Amino acid sequence: MSERFAAVEIISAKRDKLELSNEQIEWTVDAYTRGVVADEQMSSLLMAILLNGMNDREISKWTDAMIASGEKMNWSMLDRLTVDKHSTGGVGDKITLPLAPLVAACGAAVPQLSGRGLGHTGGTLDKLESIKGWKANLSNTEMLKVIQECGAVICAAGAGLAPADKKLYALRDVTGTVEAIPLIASSIMSKKIAEGTSALVLDVKTGSGAFMSDPKNSALLARTMVNLGNAAGVKTRALVTAMDVPLGLTVGNALEIRETLEVLAGGGPSDVVELTLLLANEMLDAVGIKPKVSPADALKNGMAMDVWRKMISAQGGDNDAALAVAREKTEIKATASGKLLSMDAKKIGVAAWRLGAGRQKQGEAVQAGAGIEIHAKPGDLVVKDQTILTLHTDESNRFDRAVEALTGSFSIGGKDEVVQRLPLVIERIEG
Ligand code: URA
Is 56 noted as a catalytic residue in this protein? Predict the structure, then answer.
């Protein structure tokens, strides 16, 4: 088949800071998915996009082309409105786990396609797989059955959804081209728009443990995604939230499931509960649902826990099986008494990853029990030799590298010193 364009002309245009036409963009994404544009050509174009950017029209067309590479899901047969949440990822960010059943308990349908962890940020599917028997891969028919029975489903995106993004994301990951706003925004939004949700709340993280550590860049990413979603007919809004300190008191797969169960039982750490409730209220508002029982009450009275248990068993999970516990433990203690002034999310995330909670490359197995328990957070008073962190792993030879990553991961100062940290919500962006 004769091709409409030559990849080298498109690469050269972006290299020279020219705008790509709609036809050029459509062809490039389609030809790459078909294997006509080679990986080395696409790598070069991605780097030119990272360096020279794209305007709003180009980003929107690139997103449309990625959606068109696969199927578009449809939930019109459901008797409830659909709303989804997407987080750009962070350390200890287990919010999807209590949030999806909570929002379902309050009357919306939540089709939550989630991912696995790569690098220092954890993945929702890895966390759920620490529950005995739970399965992440569902056919579209199975997914529909779970959402009809339970109101929420959390599962992996099928191979048919935005296949262009799967190929592009794998290439970006090994070519230093992940951190480009046009590429991140189009990657996330192509999957969310193809997923067919009627509304979407984005939780764009900022701070050391996030993809983007500068709040200005995080807000720009949030605004770009909100515009893409609304232009495609998905009611989209975003919160830019703090990821300078880990969320909650656990980082790691089974450890985070344990904390989720605490939240669903009406307890749990205050930051996790606060963010879960903020996002639940945003999601319900986005689809115009005024729940008879408030999200705060649905956590306290067991309604959200009931949906969780139903959802887990509908996907083969054993709610009553004990969660994995790592074989080995070691403790990191306070070297002085005083106030805990800081705790670096990135360093804690890297240490948990080195303990086996995350993977070095795609496809590797993760340890269900590995991770870190946090016993004090910034603002807490601590005494010398008090345990601040407990490290968990199945392989004790992982401790040295994890402890190395934790150098300078927290600081202790005088009792009267002021803690400098980001507020939980930095900005709210609506279309
Ligand atoms: N998550 C995605 O799905 N894509 C990106 O580019 C970054 C994070």
Answer: no
pLDDT-based confidence at residue 1 (cuts at 50, 70, 90): low
Tell me the CA–centroid distance for residue 183 and ligand 1, in Å: 8
The terminus-to-terminus CA distance of the chain in angstroms comes to 42
Q: What band does 181 get if pLDDT is binned at 50, 70 and 90?
A: very high
Residue 118: pLDDT above 70?
Answer: no
CATH architecture of 83-320: 3-Layer(aba) Sandwich (3.40)
CATH number of this structure's domain 7-53, picked from the four choices 3.40.630.30, 1.10.3210.10, 1.20.970.10, 3.40.50.150: 1.20.970.10
Ligand 1 center–CA 181 separation, angstroms: 10
Write out residues with Cβ below 6 Å of ligand 1. Answer: 169, 178, 183-184, 187-188
Residues 6+ apart with CB under 8 A from 236: 199, 200, 201, 202, 225, 226, 228, 229, 230, 431
Taking only the tens place, the pLDDT of each residue in 285-332 is 999 999 999 999 999 999 999 999 999 999 999 999 999 999 999 999
User: What's the CATH code, domain 328-413?
Assistant: 3.90.1170.30
Q: Strand 387-393 and strand 152-156: pairing? A: unpaired
Write down the catalytic residue from 187, 208, 218, 409.
Answer: 187
